[in-house]
Amino acid sequence: MDALAGSHDNGILASEAEVRAWIADAFAPAAEQWTRLERFAAMLVAENDRQNLIAASTVPSLWVRHIADSVQLLDLDRDGAGLWVDLGSGPGLPGLVVAILSERPMLLVESRKRRCDFLRDAAAELDLRHVAVAEARLEAVDTRPAGTLSARAFAPLERLIDLSARFSTESTRWLLPKGRNAVKELALLPRAWQSLFHVEHSRTDADSRILVGQGRIVPKKRGKA
């Protein structure tokens, strides 16, 4: 049941053509959204020559490894509403990709200045006025209720959840791609946290999983300073 093999038969997206067909079928983007996706992909590749945003080995498979990998999170939150907070957004994955296909307000949290410069430039060039960039460590970002919390490559699972728990409400959706160790990492969480999550298969990697949660999580108690 958990095993996935082969690409075409099990829904795993293996080429740019398959990704484009899937996005067209799932979201029916307007021409302007397609143009923005294509422009963002080109900006990502160009900026990667100046700073290491994505692994060079993934550039030839950019539409699978990064575009579809981001879009699948939006696909898991079609009924979501309110602020989407993307933690450790890096080059805007998944945040900017989601913002191209959705009008929900998007907060990109990223502490590295050069990454933030790219995020701001990309959001401005793509005219994504519903995107804001928080150039700070997550601990320094003001608490606000999040409709969705995503983190593609941010921190070990327990630390990630503990740091971001203060943004969660009873209706918050958690979307946490955790690769091949998702089930193991989930099993190490406190039981009260585990009960809020289930595991979804990735559309871009047969061995990868996404942890999907719903609800408010109480941060761990910390001793007085």
Describe the secondary structure blueprint for this structure.
Blueprint: H1 16-27, H2 31-48, H3 62-75, E1 84-87, H4 95-101, E2 106-110, H5 113-125, E3 131-135, E4 148-150, H6 157-164, E5 173-179, H7 182-187, H8 191-194, E6 197-201, E7 209-214
Parallel strand pairs: 1-2, 1-4, 2-3, 4-5
Antiparallel strand pairs: 5-7, 6-7
Helix pairs in contact: 1-3, 2-4, 3-4
Features:
16% strand, globular, 225 residues, 36% helix, 7 strands, disordered N terminus, 8 helices, Rossmann fold
Structural description of this entry:
The chain has 225 residues and is an alpha/beta fold. The protein has a single domain (16-214), classed as Rossmann fold. Helices cover 36% and strands 16% of the residues. The chain contains eight helices and seven strands; from the N terminus they run αααβαβαββαβααββ. The chain has helices spanning 16-27, 31-48, 62-75, 95-101, 113-125, 157-164, 182-187, 191-194, and strands at 84-87, 106-110, 131-135, 148-150, 173-179, 197-201, 209-214. A seven-stranded mixed sheet has the order 3-2-1-4-5-7-6. β6 (197-201) and β7 form a beta hairpin. α1 runs parallel beside α3 and α2 runs antiparallel to α4. It is globular and about 45 Å long. The termini are far apart.
In CATH, the topology is named Rossmann fold
- Flag low-confidence runs: 1-9
**Proportion in helices:** 25-40%
Number of domains: 1
Task: List the total number of helices.
Answer: 8
Judged by helices, strands and strand pairing, the structural class is alpha/beta
**Helix and strand run:** HHHEHEHEEHEHHEE
What is the mean pLDDT? 93
β-strand percent reads 15-25%
Oligomeric status of the shown chains? Answer: single chain
